[in-house]
Specification:
This protein is α+β, with helices and mostly antiparallel strands and 503 residues long. It has helices spanning 4-7, 81-92, 156-174, 193-216, 229-237, 250-263, 265-268, 280-283, 286-292, 330-352, 368-382, 411-415, 431-446, 460-467, 471-481; strands spanning 10-17, 20-27, 30-38, 48-57, 62-66, 73-76, 111-118, 127-129, 134-135, 139-142, 148-150, 181-184, 221-224, 242-247, 271-273, 297-299, 305-310, 314-320, 356-361, 389-394, 400-404, 454-458, 485-489, 499-502. It folds into 4 domains: 4-42 and 228-287, 2-Layer Sandwich (Nucleotidyltransferase, domain 5); 48-224, Nucleic acid-binding proteins (OB fold (Dihydrolipoamide Acetyltransferase, E2P), Beta Barrel), CATH 2.40.50; 296-415, Aminopeptidase, CATH 3.40.630; 431-502, Ribonuclease E, catalytic domain (Hypothetical Protein Ychn, Chain: A). It is globular, with a radius of gyration of 30 Å.
């Protein structure tokens, strides 16, 4: 078992290929988080372009903007910066409010700094805004605004103090230039002054680079792309406990080092190029852990196990003692299993990226002292989660309810799709159930049609059932309808599929 110091040591492993980037966060020798980005699934939202107005449509109060993509992008008057400023004016002084029509704000051939706010879908081009926003780890920077907003999920009583902290830090980081506006994200509530300052420095450098390029590059140039997963490793994942960041691509190692030297110099010393012969994920057992993270059952070292079921509405985790009988009495067995499960559940939430409502069904404990100890252990492990969580105590039914903020698709949703046979139910009808459905369907069709023969196409197991255990029922039905029934295996059909051909 790793010591406390070892458990707090973190290594980040990066497996890169041209089509996919995978990042594994390992602490104390155990996989804690997995992040995956696929090149073909990466959108355009957040990208900043120097666009050129191709056409203005007064009737639709919109304009088509050429940003160098296959289709022109779409800009509505509601997303123009001048319109947004007019709305602010309306709030401050309604008599001075004036929202100009789009044809009085833009003209064909004009160059505009624009940002993608919605990816192109089908035949529709991307949607744009002239209000630029740059996302950081804790902040969103609005360089054309002076407003400071706070996430609604941050408690009201702490908002003003948080805004005051940010204002003081921004003045120092952006001096002597104007600070612009900011939105404090939910996770900024627990950020230190140093973390906020690091974010401010990154955002300022990013905006300076965008502004400089907008004065040098021709129209239809891309000025900024939202950070890739590789870059977000340095911005979002590196902490004081990070020992190393190992990447198996020399090209990407050099690119990441250049990015780090420009924006996150404190993280560069941790970068390492992995040159081993074995794939980096195989060497550290990550592939095996990924396979296990897609299963329902999670075995505990004590012999107990978890059963994890994910639905649209919530995730349930059931704790079981299994074969654990090591304690002196049953109450101690239950307590020790629950204690180990508390840490395992917290890890599985991070590893599988399970968000929304989570219900943990620990094994029933009669001792209130034991219940409190389990909650404390659970809370301790959840503190390591970079995603915001909230836990309630044991309910009257002995369940622990909690929420975990949804930040991206869960691992299962990212890597898997519903089974064609069961359509995501997790189970399929038995061969006998399908056999009886077939017999009912033959009887139904016999009342409407008058073929020479009914030919049944079904999977092997269903045909075997009809030929063996249900052969008397098939014969009785054939005699009743006065038509022969032939049976044929079709391997292309799924477990719950069949076809009846009228010959």
């Amino acid at each position: 078992m790793p010591s406390l110091q070892e458990a707090m040591q973190q290594d980040i492993l990066i497996n890169w290929t041209p089509h996919e980037t995978r990042v594994a966060v390992v602490e104390g020798g155990a996989l804690q988080e997995v992040h995956i980005e696929r090149a073909l699934e990466r959108g355009l939202v957040g990208n900043v372009y120097l666009g050129r107005v191709a056409r203005v449509l007064p009737g639709m109060q919109s304009a088509f903007i050429d940003i160098g993509l296959e289709r022109a992008a779409f800009l509505h008057v509601a997303d123009l910066l001048s319109t947004l400023n007019a709305r602010h004016a309306e709030v401050d002084s309604p008599t001075n409010a004036l929202v100009l029509p789009i044809e009085k704000q833009v003209f064909e051939g004009q160059t505009l700094l624009v940002q993608v706010i919605k990816d192109p879908i089908g035949t529709k081009g991307a949607r744009l805004s002239t209000q630029i926003s740059i996302a950081g780890r804790f902040l969103v920077y609005l360089p054309q605004d002076q407003h400071i907003g706070v996430s609604q999920k941050i408690p009201q009583e702490t908002r003003e103090a948080l805004k005051k902290r940010l204002t003081d830090l921004a003045v120092a980081a952006f001096a002597p230039q104007p600070t612009g506006g900011f939105i404090l994200r939910t996770n900024a509530e627990d950020a230190s002054d140093q973390e906020l300052s690091d974010d401010l420095v990154y955002l300022r450098k990013t905006w300076v680079r965008i502004h400089e390029q907008s004065t040098k590059l021709p129209p239809m140039s891309k000025l900024h792309q939202d950070l890739s997963l590789l870059q977000r490793v340095l911005r979002d994942m590196v902490s004081d406990i990070t020992q190393s960041i190992r990447i198996d691509s020399k090209e990407q190692f050099n690119a990441l080092r250049s990015f780090g030297e420009a924006f996150m110099p404190a993280s560069v010393s941790r970068l390492q190029h992995y040159t081993g012969e074995r794939p980096i994920f195989d060497l550290f057992g990550i592939e095996d852990d990924l396979g296990k993270a897609l299963g329902r059952r999670v075995d505990l070292k004590s012999g107990g196990y978890l059963m994890i079921d994910q639905t649209e509405a919530l995730t349930t985790v059931d704790v079981n003692t299994g074969g654990f009988v090591g304690a002196k009495n049953f109450e101690d067995t239950i307590f020790k299993t629950n204690l180990e499960a508390a840490g395992a559940i917290a890890r599985q939430l991070r590893l599988r990226n399970l968000g929304g409502i989570v219900i943990a069904d620990f094994i029933d404990m009669s001792s209130l002292e034991h219940q409190q100890a389990i909650l404390q252990e659970f809370a301790k492990h959840l503190q390591r989660d970079r995603v915001k969580t909230m836990v309630s105590g044991f309910s009257s039914l002995g369940l622990v309810e909690m929420t975990r903020k949804r930040t991206r698709d869960s691992l299962a949703h990212l890597l898997c799709e519903p089974c064609e046979a069961c359509q995501g139910k997790g189970f399929v009808k038995t061969a006998r159930t399908l056999a009886y459905s077939i017999l009912r369907e033959i009887l139904r069709e016999a009342r409407q049609f008058n073929p020479k023969e009914f030919r049944v196409l079904a999977p092997q197991g269903v045909i075997d059932m009809l030929l063996d255990e249900e052969r008397e029922h098939v014969a009785s039905l054939s005699e009743f309808i006065g038509k022969p029934i032939s049976l044929q295996v079709d391997p292309a059909l799924g477990q719950e599929q069949f076809d009846i051909i009228l010959v």
